Amino acid sequence: MAEDVLADTLMVALDRGDTLRDEAALRRWLLRIAVNRAIDARRSSSRVVQLRLVPDREARRTFDDDRIALLGAVERLAPRMRAALVLRYYADLPVRDVAEALGTSGNTIKTQLREALAQLRVTLGEADDFLEDRHG
C-alpha cells in the first residue's frame, strides 16, 4: 500500500505541480498530498484483518513485542489522528507544518495529538494488563 501511495503522490504532484506557488512549501505540499492519498487508500481498503498476537507464556516482552503492540495501537487510531501522530513524531514536523499538511488548525492538531497519546496509553496499558495476566 505504501508504494501505491507514493506512486499516487508523485502522479498528483506531477499533474498539479504548476499550482505550487511557493517553492519553500514543497515538502508540506507533498506531505499533504501523501497524507490525503494514504487516508483515501485506507478508507477504500475494505479487507482489513485485525490480528491479535498472543505471546507464548514463557516468552519475555522484547523490543519486537513492544513494537508490535505500538503499531497495533497506532493502527486503531482514527486515520486523521494517526496521520497527525506520524507527521509530528515520526516525520518530526512542527505542529504548524502538520496542521498545514492536514489542512486544519494548529489547535486541532494539538487536540488530536493529545487524544491520540491518551488512546495509546489506554490501549498499551490494556496490552500490559493482558500480558501480566498471562504471565502472572
Radius of gyration: 18 Å
Number of helices: 6
Q: Kindly provide the name of the CATH class of the largest domain.
A: Mainly Alpha
Query: Could you say what the CATH architecture of the largest domain is?
Result: Orthogonal Bundle
CATH fold-level topology of the largest domain: Arc Repressor Mutant, subunit A
Backbone structural class: mainly alpha
Q: How many domains is the backbone divided into?
A: 2
Total number of beta strands? 0
- Secondary-structure element sequence? HHHHHH
Termini separation: 39 Å
Helix proportion:
over 70%
Uncertain regions spanning at least 5 consecutive residues: 130-136
The CATH superfamily of the largest domain appears as Winged helix-like DNA-binding domain superfamily/Winged helix DNA-binding domain
User: Tell me, what's the shape?
Assistant: globular
Salient structural properties:
mainly alpha, 136 residues, 6 helices, Arc Repressor Mutant, subunit A
Detailed description of the structure:
The chain is mainly alpha-helical and 136 residues long. Helices cover 71% and strands 0% of the residues. The protein is built from 6 helices and no strands. The model is unreliable at 130-136 (pLDDT under 50).
Question: What is this structure's SSE topology?
Answer:
Blueprint: H1 2-16, H2 26-44, H3 63-75, H4 79-90, H5 95-102, H6 106-135
Helix pairs in contact: 1-2, 2-5, 3-6, 4-5, 4-6, 5-6
Short account of what is shown:
The protein has helices spanning 2-16, 26-44, 63-75, 79-90, 95-102, 106-135. It has 136 residues and is an all-alpha fold. The longest helix has 30 residues, at 106-135.
